[in-house]
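Running this now, will post back.
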Amino acid sequence: MALPLLPGLAPPEVAFFSEMELVTVVPRQRLEGIQLLGGSTPPLNPPYRTSLPLWLAILLKRQRRANILPPPWLSSSSLETILQLETSTPQFSDAPPLPRSSSTSIPPSPPFLLNATADAPSDALPYHWLEIGEMLLEAASDDIPEPDTVRRMMRDLREVRMAKMRAGVDVLEGVREVKMNGVGAMEIAEGRAFISRVVDGLRKIGAGKETSRREREADERETRVGGAGDEDDDDMDI
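Update: finished.
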């Protein structure tokens, strides 16, 4: 019997989609372009940089055919700055700005934004920051300066941001929505179950309050009607 599908993407599915993000590599040997479903990759000519999907860059890294240049935000100094910003305000840090697009074209979205390449902004976390950072630390830690420090700061940053998500859920009662701009894809996938349980609990509490209110109003109407009937009986006795 097939298990019911949960709403939304699971964390492994989010990690799979993040592998389409483009990263910057420095090839160590010449390679021709590869024909993929989305088009052909650029040829690799050392020592010129080029952008490749994350999954292909990790594959070439493991084969020792290329080195990966980490995005500017995946450094100890940038993560420290972002962490200080996250701890000093209840809002999430701003996401990287979207590129300008004409009024007739559809604005791009992840993974079609260059937010993980060497030219990405250093003071903003992209939508797939957690997945990309963990994959690069696992497959290309020798290409990242101070990998242990970066790994520790990413863990701290993750805990701070998850605490903000829980704090945002605490104010759901009495409001219909909570602003969570800047939340990453993996953070949404991991927090969906917790948030759904809280919302369901608040919905049940709200339904219970509504039922109690209706019963109280019905009792008050019966009391008023009963009181009027007693007065009529008294008048008839007189």
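Residues 185-237 form the longest helix (53 residues). More later if anyone needs it.
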